[in-house]
Design a protein that fits this description.
Elements lengths: L7 H26 L3 E4 L4 H6 L1 H11 L3 E4 L8 H14 L2 E7 L9 H11 L3 E4 L18 H18 L5 E5 L13 H8 L5 E5 H6 L4 H7 L6 E4 L21 H12 L3 E4 L8 H15 L2
Helix pairs in contact: 3-4, 6-7, 9-10
Length: 296
């Protein structure tokens, strides 16, 4: 075995130099590495429907640190939710947020959503979708223009009043429509301006790009509010669209990571895939590998 002897003077000199030598590397790398990456389970929806526990187990074995359940979770009993929580605890993964239909934010369902999310150990209850073509008043039809989007903001603020006393917070997940101007204003700007700062603005990167917006500029314009990001790539090639894997599209992932971790407030990333040329679980695994390679 090789050994090296240091004098006390050499040891003290080295001790003084090392913190400075590594400070620049450690400060950025440690912060980046400490941010967990999860999978939005819509990415493996067919497998999840057939075997929820087996799918979550497979996702954890890939190396994902978290999962995000979407709307079907709302039909679970307390016992089913507790069983899923136990499985996640055993696997060492988290569920930081869930995706929810608009009616789950209504007065007759918001408390149920709260209770299930508390069982699952979540931090955020995310409004996942507002259909710009719907005429259902429960979803606050955005065809009514600026006032319609302000009503969506009101819905989120009202949810905060119910959720925050229990330690939960509401969130909003964008799609393409939120980036298309309504009477000269983008709906996402309306939502950001008219919601409490505690309301998370969950950024879906792919739909932001397809909507013609700049995700990096959006993150920088809303410091502290982009607490989770759906890492979904996109290609302007109609034959590819959202079928590209992470890193195969036009997204500036380096710029997004820098903005998100340099003031955006990101707490966790979520890979999302709507489909690809590979089976669901293989797609999820390949995307995680690509994410790990890019997020350094």
């Amino acid at each position: 075995m090789l050994t090296t002897r240091f004098s006390r003077r050499s040891f003290l000199a080295l001790s003084a130099v090392l913190p400075w030598a590594f400070r620049g590397i450690a400060s950025g790398a440690a912060a980046s590495a400490s941010i967990p990456v999860g999978l939005e389970l819509y990415s493996v929806r067919d497998a999840l429907k057939q075997d929820p526990e087996g799918t979550v187990r497979a996702v954890a074995q890939m190396g994902y640190q978290a999962v995000e359940f979407y709307s079907p979770y709302f039909e679970w009993t307390d016992a089913q939710a507790k069983q899923m929580r136990k499985l996640m605890d055993d696997l060492g993964i988290r569920c930081y947020s869930t995706h929810n239909n608009a009616d789950y934010f209504g007065p007759d369902k918001i408390t149920r959503a709260r209770d299930l999310n508390l069982i699952l150990g979540c931090k955020y209850v995310v409004l996942a979708w507002v259909d710009p073509k719907t005429s259902d008043p429960k979803t606050t039809d955005p065809k009514t223009g600026i006032e319609g989007w302000k009503a969506v903001a009101d819905k989120l603020n009202a949810a905060a009043e119910t959720l925050e006393p229990s330690g939960l917070r509401p969130g909003y997940h964008n799609h393409q429509a939120e980036w298309v101007s309504v009477s000269g204003q983008r709906p996402m700007d309306i939502l950001a301006k008219n919601t409490k700062s505690s309301v998370m603005l969950q950024l879906d990167v792919g739909t932001c790009l397809e909507g013609g917006a700049d995700p990096v500029a959006w993150i920088r314009a809303n410091p502290g509010r982009i607490r989770s990001i759906h890492c979904k790539d996109w290609s302007p090639d109609p034959a590819k669209g959202y079928k590209v894997l992470f890193g195969e599209g036009v997204t500036d992932w380096k710029g997004i990571f820098q903005a998100a971790e340099g003031g955006g407030g990101v707490e966790y990333y979520l890979v999302e895939q709507e489909g690809s040329r590979f089976p669901e679980l293989e797609t999820a695994s390949k995307c995680l590998q690509a994410f790990r390679a890019a997020h350094v």
